[in-house]
Amino acid sequence: MPMIRLDKFISERTEFSRSQIKQLTAKGAVSVNGNTVKKSDLKIDPDTDSVSVQGRLLSGDKHKYILLNKPQGYVSSTESTEGPSVLELIPPEIRTKGMFPAGRLDKDSIGALLITDDGELAHRMLSPKSHIPKIYIVKLARPYESKYVDIFKKGIKLADGETCLPAEVKSSEYCDKLAFVQLYEGKYHQVKRMFAAVGNHVEILMRFSLGSLVLPEKLALGECMELLHKDVENLFVQPVFERICADFPEVFSANLINI
Predict the structure, then answer these.
(1) Which CATH code fits 65-258?
(2) Would you call 122 exposed, middle or buried from its count of C-beta atoms within 10 A (0-12, 13-18, 19+)?
(3) Intervals of CATH 3.10.290.10 along the chain
(4) Which of 154, 220, 241, 255 has its CA 20 to 30 A from that of 15?
(5) What angle do CA 111, 86, 101 make, to 5 degrees?
């Protein structure tokens, strides 16, 4: 990779402006390969040089990928006109300029949401050609019925006449009012509308898988974690629905039941 200016490198990986970076450098808060530097226009090699700002090592990767376990009450937007933005849950030290949620979860829904500054990856994720499956678990108002399997598989017809792509659904061993759903599309309030079409009501909706990227059990509501590139590639790996549902953490199920 070509040599680039230190301030450009830092600017692309943090929320600091060029002027702020210049001030930090002058104060001795920036180091390259363990040595304090005083000039922000220093040329570095992003592939081999190690850069730290205020004691925090910056990743050499240009883009950042964060998996958030979204709680209720936050909107999947960069703005907060309808409530607090999910970006407020990302710690300042790992935020970057241009970060946004890749996809949506309703304000009252919880679970896996990817936050990134990589527009190309987000476009690839959201493109109909990719058909990234998403797996949800829902808490229903009334017990799950076995007839749902065939209805969802055929492509359920919604109340407004719109027909969904075939989907998979199965019951949960933890509670007769919990059910798993796998979708290959993302219509407005789709899961809620699908269960409404079979005479049930979704009380709580949690997304826990984007492709084969599964929400870790250790990630509590409101918490987030940085992803490695190998984790990001799991977005585009076809999940095994039955296996992922079988491995669903008991702690998540208990939380859903008690909400």
Answers:
(1) 3.30.2350.10
(2) middle
(3) 4-57
(4) 220
(5) 80
Distance in angstroms (rounded) separating the CA atoms of residues 174 and 247: 12
Tell me the whole-structure pTM to 2 decimals.
Answer: 0.83
Q: Where in the chain is the domain with CATH 3.30.2350.10?
A: 65-258
- How far, in Å, CA of 179 to CA of 232, rounded? 26
Tens digits of residue pLDDT in 122-151: 988 888 777 799 999 999 999 999 999 999
Which among 41, 45, 47, 106 is annotated as catalytic? 106
- Helix or strand or coil: residue 183? strand
Query: Could you confirm whether 176 is annotated as catalytic?
Result: no
**Domain 4-57 fold:** 3.10.290
